[in-house]
Write a structure and sequence with these properties.
Elements: E1 2-3, H1 5-12, H2 16-25, E2 36-37, H3 38-48, E3 52-53, E4 56-57, H4 72-98, H5 105-124, H6 126-134, H7 140-161
Antiparallel strand pairs: 1-2, 3-4
Helix pairs in contact: 1-2, 5-7
Length: about 160
């Protein structure tokens, strides 16, 4: 199937600019009629272009090397090395989690929710606990001291409790 640059870009799931760059660099070629042969370009693209996401190889997750591998054996060794690096990284993370050096995000969220709910409950209870005491008090300084003592007591109980 013969296609223009825009149609080829859609078929390859890349931008039109990427097609033009690949053509300028010689990674893909046009036919004599000025169109791109889809099957030929797909093969050229796969053989001559390393898939990247943000500078990192999509399949291996490794940074691309400065010198391209010359043959399939070197590509295999490079991919194997990247795979081993990723495996070692995952094992290190699992070990650190078992040793208690890492915490799971969902566990932290649950703990924070419990802490916030307990704090809210204690603080919302202050008016109910202080209302009977403050009924007969008319001195602003005394009211302020009682409020301060109750808030300090509440916060102290929360910190001692350890949630």
């Amino acid at each position: 199937m013969k296609l223009g640059a825009t149609a080829l870009a859609k078929k390859l799931h890349v931008s039109r600019e990427a097609v033009y760059r690949a053509e300028r660099s010689g990674r893909i070629t046009r036919e004599k009629d000025g169109k791109f042969d889809l099957e030929k370009c797909k093969k050229q693209w796969m053989d001559r272009t390393q898939p990247k996401v943000g500078g990192i190889h999509e399949r291996t997750g490794c940074e691309p090397s400065k010198s391209k591998p010359v043959n399939d054996g070197q590509r295999y060794l490079k991919a194997k090395a990247c795979s081993e690096e990723e495996r070692a990284r995952m094992l290190r993370l699992e070990r650190e989690e078992r040793e208690g050096l890492l915490l799971r995000k969902d566990e932290i969220k649950k703990c924070l929710i419990v802490m916030i709910q307990a704090t809210k409950q204690r603080i919302m209870g202050i008016p109910k606990r202080l209302a009977p005491v403050l009924v007969g008090v008319s001195d602003a300084r005394t009211i302020e001291n009682l409020l301060f003592q109750e808030i300090e007591s509440t916060l102290s109980q929360l910190s001692e409790k350890g949630f």
